[in-house]
């Protein structure tokens, strides 16, 4: 891929640079506006009516829902925010109803168990479960003395509903999402390079477009996954031959044929709107470089159309809970850390002991990468956030004067969560402290000490439980996944019906687990480079299963000999993964060939071929 990464620093290790360097991800203005309005509007209404306490609760409810509003398809965003809102209000209700500090600690520990277990139910439930625990802890520490518990819960839920309504209102602007625009700009930049008299500058713009698309689809703190995002990643990976052929044409001074230029414009438009590009037929009388461009466009369009068709035909995967050793190790780690955090806060007689537990819960959020890296970045970000809040609360009078700062910090949240966890920690810390300390005395040193104690507890317990968290190597994980896919493909292409739905669910669940492991390693400074090399392969495996599912749903079995060859190739690949070192690029190419064979229509005269 034609990309240029930053030069390495001669003194700092690469993993540290990777953690400290924010991603250059474009802002999603639909999320910025939704969060800014969702958090700012209750504060404005509270100032106008004098009901500040109710306004703070509604604002915190909107904050809860906003944490789950990550860039993705419109339907995916609604589902993600909706699940977070429901689970968030359940957690808040449990915390607010606790009759005393020790009961509050017991409630937090009880909520921690389903919160961690929900991480095995997919991205939506994992996010919602994390927010259920987070705002349960917040509710235990910020119980109102003047409002009944029922009213506290109602105002919190009202803020969540407001944010959900604002996300729903972004429907007209769904095509402006950064992931769509980033991929579309690859084809825009390619066209500009082909049209430029001096293509050097245009080629640099193309490199920048590729880097931005990479950061949006793979990097960043937003680990949202959806079918739309996966299709865009498919386009990104298949754009390599197009880019290489276009660069060669520009270097040679050749002009591509009009049909290729129109196809590139169509691809840019379809990436933004979500439309399916029309079929593309390569020419036969052009130069070798033009034919290479034609072939790249044809392969990308064909792969996109097949993936879209398989997605439409795919049966819905049912949630199937599978709790293994690593899951219970995560539960144990979370419960131990929270028990220590709550115990320290209560026994030390702190005024706001929940802040220690809140730090531990945020750092230990499942499926979020390296705990060590998150702990360090959380500590750094919290220090910065507390200092920002201290300065604002010291210099700016509470009320109307602080409202603009609350809105600005709220609008910064979606940008910060995408670009850097430390930056996100700083922004959310300053925002929460501004929300909760209007007119109250603020102890900056106490909040810093609470945060550092929480981080120290996480590091200590994490070090003691480290042997429990070691999982199999990526090669072993992929070998298990390829073996499961081979078994499912064998039954699907042979037209077997008995037991196939159960096998399909197990296969999709295994691939979901593999994707989750890769997402976590992408956030780990020690394993991110290796995980990034494996990342394209998981998408191909999912498309192989989708294509086999489509054949089974259409009751259109493959030619028996061809099906046997495909399955035999997959089983050979499994043995190679278990016994020898297989490079991710080689496995990706092999699976692409298998996918082409599975997705291909049956030959005339073959069983099921018509």
From TrEMBL:
GO terms for cellular component: plasma membrane. It is a multi-pass membrane protein. It is found in: Cell membrane. Its main location: membrane. The chain crosses the membrane at residues 78-94, 153-171, 380-400, 420-436, 448-465. It comes from the Bacteria. Pfam families: FUSC_2. InterPro entries: Memb_transporter_dom. The keyword Cell membrane applies. Residues 343-461 form the Integral membrane bound transporter domain. Keywords: Cell membrane, Membrane, Transmembrane, Transmembrane helix. Belongs to the YccS/YhfK family. This is Fusaric acid resistance family protein.
